[in-house]
Amino acid sequence: MERHILVVFPHPDDESFGVSGTLALYAEQGVPITYACLTLGEMGRNMGIPPFANRETLPSIRKKELEDACRVIGIGDLRLLGFRDKTVEFEDEELLADRIHAIIAETNPSLIITFYPGYSVHPDHDACGAAVIRAVERIPSEKRPVVHCVAFAKNCEKEIGKPDIVRNVSAVIDKKIAAIKAHRSQTEGLMKAAAKYGGDAIARFKTERFWIYTW
Amino acid sequence: MQPIRIEEVQKALNRFANQDVYLHLETTNGAYASHHNEGFFAAGAYIRNGRIRFSRAKIAGNGPYRVGLKLDLGWVYAEGLTDWEVTDKGQLLLAGHDYEGKLAVALQLSDEPF
Ligand SMILES: [Zn+2]
C-alpha cells in the first residue's frame, strides 16, 4: 500500500484522461492523494459546445471543473501552482523544480505520478515531467520515491519500450467517466462523440499505462 | 533570413531583456486560405510596435521553434518559428515559413519603433 501519492501535471483534465482510474482505486483504499496542477489550461481552444466560456472566463471555469473532478476521483489535496498554460517550458527550470521539491518535502509521497519527459507530446507535459525528475534528483537516490510516468508520443514504445504497468481500471470506470465529464468545457463534444461510436472509444479508458522512471 | 540556430537566437533574445522594447508579433494563414480550401477557417492577428518589457526569454523546440517572453504581468508566445536575422539596426527578426515558404508567423524585437 502506498503511503501518499503526489500527482504532478500541467493541465486540468490531464489527471482525468490519463490516471483517474488508478487514482480512484488508490483513493478507495484510503491512500491520501495530493495533485499539483501547474496551470489552469488558460490557453485551451475548447470553449464548450455551444461555447459557454471565453478566453477570459476559461481559467475560473476550468478551476471549478478541476475541483469537481478531484472530488469524483477522491483527490483530497489540490494545489494550483499558478503557472500559465503553454509557458511551462519557458520558465526557469530550477524555480519549477523548487516548487515541486517543496511539495515533495512536505507530503513525503511514496509514489509520484507525472508525464514522461520527452514522450508526452505537449511541450507543457514534457517540461512538467522534466521538472519533476529534476526535483526528485535532488533527493539522495536511496530515499527517492518511485516515479510512474505517463507517455503517449507515437514513438514512445519504440524508444522507451512497453509500459511497465498496464492497469485495468474497469472497477472504477464510472468514476473515471464522471471525472472526464467534469471537465465539461473541454470534453463535452468528445464524450458525446464517444457515446455515439460506443464500444472502442470507452474501452480505451479502461486501461492505464505507466513507465517506471529509472535513473 | 537564415535557419534558426538556437544558441545564437537565445543570445540575441537575452540582449532585449529588462528594458523597454518594441514588439511586432504576427500570425496569419494568408488572406486566401479559405478561398483555396473551403473547409479551412482562416484566422490571424498582429500587434505592431507594442512596447513591452520582459524579464526572461527562451527559445525551445527542435525546429520549428517556440519562443516565450515573460512579462511582468503576462507572456508573449509564438510557435512555428524557422528563420532569423539581426538587421543592421540591431532588430531581431524571427519568422516561421510554411512548407511553401510563405510567412506564417513573425516575432520581432527592436530598441526603436519599427
Ligand atoms: Zn495536458
Automatic annotation (TrEMBL), chain B:
InterPro entries: DUF1806, YojF_sf
Name of the protein in its database record: DUF1806 domain-containing protein
One Pfam family recorded for the sequence: DUF1806
